[in-house]
């Protein structure tokens, strides 16, 4: 007579103030739930390469808390919950930080001392509206993804220290000015600017000599500018990754992009000066080598 023997193997999860769900290991991450600033020190954090804090609540997640992570942890994701502020220290030994739908307001570096570990930075938060110049100390960044945030002004000069930056995604923000000026990011290969309020870009694409792909649709381009940069895009071999479909009334399609013939140069110049003035008097000023003040609004 054959007998079927059912063997049930159970294991006890570590006792901690968080709920740890091992089923997500197959997805490559170890979720940690319901941690707060108050009970973080009591949590028994898993010794895994990728930790995902879900529905956790932190007023600020700073260098001391990053230091409390296991040495084997190389990637941290904050998803849902609340993380108002993230401060990255020079000894934060992570390769990737993601803050997704957690209401992030402030992202900055703890000091000017370089961080040689972090390579990828991702933010999704409509409350995130300022790129802190202190982040220039994250020397090894290869990818910056701040799509679906609330940036209205970005100065390329703040990105010049990133000698390894290959991808910049600022899609679906409120960018009115993407200020290139005389700056350049020689290593940049992919640039995503679709879904903003941009009218024109200076020195484009020559400010990015290694640029391979760019996304420009759903902006407010001037037809004069579109016509002028088409030759540069073709000669530099840059691939336009997206195209506008049907344009709004009074607009026209030019090279795959919706644009308009009218130009409001005074309004654009005024907006740029307003953003620069606001950034200088903001709360995240940075004194440059020549004594100038770099800030962002």
Automatic annotation (TrEMBL):
Gene3D superfamilies: Ribonuclease Inhibitor (3.80.10.10)
Domain of life (superkingdom): Eukaryota
Keywords carried by this UniProt record: Signal
Signal peptide segment: 1-18
Annotated protein name in UniProt: AAEL015627-PA
């Amino acid at each position: 007579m054959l007998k079927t023997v059912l063997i049930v193997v159970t294991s006890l999860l570590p006792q901690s103030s968080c709920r740890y769900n091992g089923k997500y290991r197959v997805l490559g991450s170890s979720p940690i739930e319901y941690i707060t600033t108050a009970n973080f020190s009591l949590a028994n954090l898993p010794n895994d390469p990728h930790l995902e804090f879900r529905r956790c609540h932190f007023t600020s997640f700073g260098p001391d808390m990053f230091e409390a992570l296991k040495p084997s942890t190389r990637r941290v994701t904050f998803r849902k919950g609340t993380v108002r502020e993230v401060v990255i220290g020079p000894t934060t030994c992570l390769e990737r930080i993601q803050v997704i739908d957690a209401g992030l307001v402030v992202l900055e570096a703890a000091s000017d001392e370089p961080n040689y570990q972090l390579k990828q930075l991702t933010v999704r938060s409509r409350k995130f509206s300022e790129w802190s110049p202190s982040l220039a100390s994250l020397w090894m960044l290869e990818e910056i993804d701040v799509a679906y945030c609330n940036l209205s002004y970005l100065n390329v000069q703040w990105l010049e220290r990133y000698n390894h930056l290959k991808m910049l995604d600022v899609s679906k923000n409120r960018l009115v000015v993407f200020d290139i000026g005389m700056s350049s990011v020689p290593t940049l290969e992919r640039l995503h600017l679709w879904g903003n309020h941009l009218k024109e870009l200076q020195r484009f694409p020559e400010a990015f000599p290694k640029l391979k792909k760019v996304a420009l649709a759903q902006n407010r381009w001037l037809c004069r500018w579109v016509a002028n940069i088409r030759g540069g895009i073709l000669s530099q071999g840059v691939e336009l990754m997206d195209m506008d479909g049907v344009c709004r009334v009074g607009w026209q399609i030019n090279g795959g992009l919706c644009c308009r013939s009218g130009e409001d140069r005074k309004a654009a110049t005024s907006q740029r000066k307003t953003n620069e003035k606001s950034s200088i008097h903001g709360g995240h000023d940075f004194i440059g080598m020549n004594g100038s003040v770099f800030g962002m609004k």
